[in-house]
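Q: Structure tokens for this one, please.
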Amino acid sequence: MIDYEKILQENPTGILATENGGKLDARVVRALAWQDGRVYFCTHGQRPLYAQLQANPNAVFCTHAPDYAPVLTLSGKAVFVDDRDFKIRMMEESDIVKRNYQTPDNPDYTAFCLELEEVKSFSFAEGTKRWTIGGELL
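A: Here is the predicted structure, written as tokens:
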């Protein structure tokens, strides 16, 4: 399987797509952490992203290296994470998170992870490759 964690570490900013009333919605987000088949993000509890994921947890995150080799697409279900230690860690690691929420106890500071079901990579040299989280190449 492709080392998606390394790609995310080098390219954490990408596009997160969700379903919004039968249409797709996309926005630029930054992956804050990744481990064990999960990619972690945060959002404001009053933003449309939060409501969209509550209504339909299916989401897709896409990022790429500067030379587009590879383009990485991660698909799965969003699960909200109410873990104060995690929120503290994200504030310590991200000035943007700290500036936006100031304290881990801010009621609008909402963390979630995307529990990965499929990983796809694309490069002009190798074309498209797809893996399920069990690691099988599809």
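A few notes: Residues 84-93 form the longest helix (10 residues). The helical segments are 4-10, 48-55, 84-93, 95-101.
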